[in-house]
Specification:
single chain, about 90 residues, mainly beta, 8-stranded mixed beta sheet, 8 strands
């Protein structure tokens, strides 16, 4: 079973991030939701907040201004603004 998938974070001005990742966690209008490889198709509205990117045992954190999440074979996050917060080994 494939454990990684392509994540793209696309802002209004650039391709902010593109890499194979293991999991992401985002804030939706209904609360926090996580996505793994082979997730079924989904299209959802994102709230402003932190997007957690898991690669191996490390989490990268990106602040996004809300947007749209499109899940197919890859996951695309469309947002007006994205800013790196930190990289660490914990998700809090």
């Amino acid at each position: 079973m494939k454990t990684k998938f392509l994540l793209q974070i696309i802002t209004s001005s650039e391709l902010f991030y593109q890499n194979d990742v293991e999991m992401i966690t985002v804030e939706t209008l209904d609360g926090r939701e996580s996505f793994l490889s082979n997730h079924e198709w989904e299209y959802t509205v994102l709230a402003q907040g932190v997007l957690f990117i898991k690669i191996s045992d490390t989490y990268q954190k990106v602040m996004i201004s809300g947007g749209i999440l499109d899940v197919k074979k890859q996951i695309r996050v469309f947002t007006d603004e994205a800013t790196w917060i930190s990289t660490d080994s914990s998700k809090d």
